[in-house]
Amino acid sequence: MTEIVSTDDTLGGAPRIKGRRIGVHHITKRVLDGGVAPEQVAAEYDLDLADVYRALTYYYDHPDEIREIRRRQTTPPEELRVFRSPEEFERREQPPKET
């Protein structure tokens, strides 16, 4: 039986299906947000259907963890932030000056 694992060196530590680079967040995005049937997701990712349901179960057991992972994916790092005006750039939070 395949299990859900987290390792720092794969997917940034996000929970995933053991032996694969398919995160729980990938599966929940397709099934819960995209409305794709679990059977279709299993076929697309070449997974057992049980793996898809195992990932969904993990999500329902750890919803806050998965939401945080998804939030981090959609929030760009500060160095990649796009400013829409010079004023917005000037209002950005400045790091403290070293003395």
Can you say what the CATH homologous superfamily is?
Winged helix-like DNA-binding domain superfamily/Winged helix DNA-binding domain
Which blocks of ≥5 consecutive residues have pLDDT under 50? none
Shape descriptor = elongated
Question: From N to C, what is the helix and strand string?
Answer: EEHHHHH
Report the top-level CATH class.
Answer: Mainly Alpha
Portion of residues in helices?
40-55%
Termini separation (Å)?
Answer: 58 Å
Count of DSSP H/I helices: 5
Secondary structural class = mainly alpha
Quaternary status of these chains? single chain
Q: Give me the CATH fold name.
A: Arc Repressor Mutant, subunit A
What strand order characterises the main sheet? Answer: 1-2
Task: Round the Cα radius of gyration to an integer and report it.
Answer: 18 Å
Mean pLDDT across all amino acids: 84
Number of strands: 2
* Domain tally: 1
| CATH architecture label name | Orthogonal Bundle
- The proportion of strand residues reads under 5%
